[in-house]
Amino acid sequence: MYNECNPSPNGTPSRPGHRLPEVVEHQSTTGEHDPPSTYAETDLASFKVFLKRNMRNQAPPAGLLDDIRARIAGIRTRK
Amino acid sequence: MSRNAREHLYESELLVHYPVVYNFLLRMTAQESDAADLTQETFVRAYLKIDHYEAGTNGRAWLFCLARNLFINDYRKRKRRGEQELDERAAYQYRDVDSPMAGFADLRIAGALDRDFSDQIMKAMTFLSDRQRAIVLMADLYDFAEKEIAEAMEMPLNTVKSVTRRSRIALIKQLQSYAESTFGIVNTRNLG
C-alpha cells in the first residue's frame, strides 16, 4: 500500500515515484482475527518500552544524597 | 518505633529511591536544579512524616505522593506556568472508543519507533496537565499499578483509569503529528 494522492505533509514537493510510508493494517498469520485485546496489550507494552527508551533516567546531581543526609542530620540535632 | 528502627526504615525503604524520585521531579519541572531542591524537600518531609509510613509497604508510591504534593502545592504556587495546559475537556476530545493505543499502533506498524523521539516526548509532555503528566510517568515510565497511582495521586481508581487513557491518547496524538511532519508517516486514523 502506498500513498499516491497525499501531498508531502511537511510542505516539500513530492518527487515523482517517491512513495510515502503508510500504515498498513495488521494481517493475522493464522488467517483468523486475533482478539482486539491482544493488539491493545502489545501496543501498550511497546508504548512503555518506547517511552523508557526515549526518557532514560539521568543520574542525580553528585551532591544530592549528601545534601539530603545533611538536612536530616540537622533535623536530628535540633530534636 | 525506636529511633534506630526509624533510621533503618528511612535508609532501607525510602532513601534508596532518591534517584527515581529525582527523575520523576525532573520530568515534572524540566529543571535540574528545581528537581534537586524538590527531591531534598521530599526526603526531609519523608523523614518528618515517617510515622505515617507503614514498613514493608510501597515506599516508592508513598514518596511519589509526597513529591507530587510538594510539586503541585509549593512549586506550582511559586512558579505560575506560562504555557497553556491541556484541560480535561479538551483531552476528552482525544478519546478513542475502540482502543486508546490505536494511534500508537500506527507508529509501531509504520516502523517509526526506532527513531529518536526524546525531545519530542518532552515537548509533547508540556501539553499535558500536571496531573496527566504525573500519571503517565507513573503508569508507563515507572510501571506503577493503577492502585498505586490512585494512592500516590490521592484519586479514585476510576478517575485514574480515565485520566491515564486520555493522557496516553493526547501524548500519542502529539507524537503522530511529529512523525507525520518529520518522517512522512501518514496516519490513516482520526483520533480527535
> Helix amount of chain A, in percent?
40-55%
**Cα distance, first to last residue of chain B?**
54 Å
Largest interface, by Cβ-Cβ below 8 angstroms: which chains and how many residues each? A-B, 38 and 50 residues
- Major sheet details of chain B: none
Low-confidence stretches of chain B: 82-98
Distance between the termini of chain A: 72 Å
- Unreliable stretches covering 5 or more consecutive residues of chain A: 1-15, 18-31
**SS class of chain B:** mainly alpha
SS-derived structural category of chain A: mainly alpha
Discrete helix count of chain B: 10
Instruction: Return the CATH architecture of the largest domain in chain B.
Output: Orthogonal Bundle
- Measured as a percent range, the helix fraction of chain B is 55-70%
**What is the level 1 CATH name of the largest domain in chain B?**
Mainly Alpha
Name the CATH homologous superfamily of the largest domain in chain B: Winged helix-like DNA-binding domain superfamily/Winged helix DNA-binding domain
The value of Rg of chain B in angstroms is 18 Å
What is the multimeric organization of the chains shown? heterodimer
Number of domains of chain B: 2
Mean pLDDT of chain A: 67
Sheet with the most strands of chain A? Answer: none
CATH topology of the largest domain in chain B: Arc Repressor Mutant, subunit A
Mean pLDDT of chain B: 81
Write up this protein:
The complex is a heterodimer of chains A (79) and B (192). Chain A has 79 residues and is an all-alpha fold. In chain A, 43% of the residues lie in helices and 0% in strands. The radius of gyration of chain A is 26 Å and the shape is elongated. Chain B is mostly helical. Chain B has two domains: 3-78, RNA polymerase sigma factor, region 2, helix turn helix motif (Rna Polymerase Sigma Factor, Chain: A); 88-183, Arc Repressor Mutant, subunit A (Orthogonal Bundle). In chain B, 67% of the residues lie in helices and 0% in strands. Mean pLDDT of chain B is 81; it is low at 82-98. Classes of the chains: A mainly alpha (79), B mainly alpha (192). Chain A: Residues 19-35 have a biased composition (Basic and acidic residues).
